[in-house]
């Protein structure tokens, strides 16, 4: 599975490079991230819970950064496993200064997944990976924008609070990714509307089931 793309940050390259390697920041904005801890030189331990189609579970593993050329580029190696299966991959990140406060990030990588998560199909797994990447980068960008704004106003503020997308928002990102990959542009609004309707129905049914369970537990007690 190949993953590639680009993203534009409204910030200097040095700041972007630093934020992309800050575990305290990344752990707050990556969807489903439960832990991201620096355990050695450019080595992190991570725990991530995520839903991909009918497969739900936790991954634990390590992330290693190498070939660091600050603030221009680095290589990232991922090795994780859990109940849903395993994922191994390597990616390369490059940052280019486009202006005083604009940085273009380009990334490309190869990943291999196996186990239950592979059973949902490559297209869905790829869409999930793209959604996870985009939502994470959106979170980093929002954090950077808040920091830049505080500095511009010369305010001494606590770190901005940026919340990672919840599982519902992440699922919508995956659904939109699948639709954009397989549906012609002129028919996408119809499919997006249908996906939203189905997702809302699923949320309502789950909330009702949860309420019934609570009522049963209360009556039993």
From TrEMBL:
Top-level lineage group: Bacteria
Record-annotated membrane-spanning stretches: 189-205
One Pfam family this sequence matches: COXG
Keyword Transcription carried by entry: no
Keywords per UniProt: Membrane, Transmembrane, Transmembrane helix
CDD domains (UniProt xref): CoxG
PANTHER family: BLL0334 PROTEIN
Protein name as catalogued: Carbon monoxide dehydrogenase subunit G
Gene source species: Candidatus Chlorohelix allophototropha
């Amino acid at each position: 599975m190949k993953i590639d793309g680009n993203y534009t940050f409204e910030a200097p390259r040095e700041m972007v490079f630093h934020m992309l390697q800050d575990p305290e920041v990344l752990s707050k904005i990556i969807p489903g991230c439960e832990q991201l801890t620096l355990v050695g030189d450019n080595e992190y331990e991570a725990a991530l819970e995520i839903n991909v189609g009918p497969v739900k579970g936790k991954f634990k593993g390590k992330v290693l950064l190498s070939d660091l050329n600050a603030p221009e580029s680095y290589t990232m190696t991922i090795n994780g496993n859990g109940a849903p299966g395993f994922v191994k991959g390597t990616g390369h990140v490059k940052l280019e200064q486009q202006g005083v406060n604009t940085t273009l990030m380009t990334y490309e990588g190869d990943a291999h997944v196996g186990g239950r998560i592979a059973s949902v199909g490559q297209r869905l797994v790829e869409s999930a990976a793209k959604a996870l990447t985009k939502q994470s980068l959106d979170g980093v960008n929002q954090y950077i924008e808040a920091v830049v704004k505080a500095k511009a106003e010369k305010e001494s503020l606590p770190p901005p609070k940026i919340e990672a997308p919840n599982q519902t928002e992440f699922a919508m990102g995956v659904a939109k990714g699948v639709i954009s990959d397989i549906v012609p542009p002129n028919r996408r609004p119809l499919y997006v509307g249908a996906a939203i309707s189905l997702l809302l129905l699923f949320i309502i049914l789950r909330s009702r089931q949860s309420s019934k369970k609570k009522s049963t537990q209360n009556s039993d007690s």
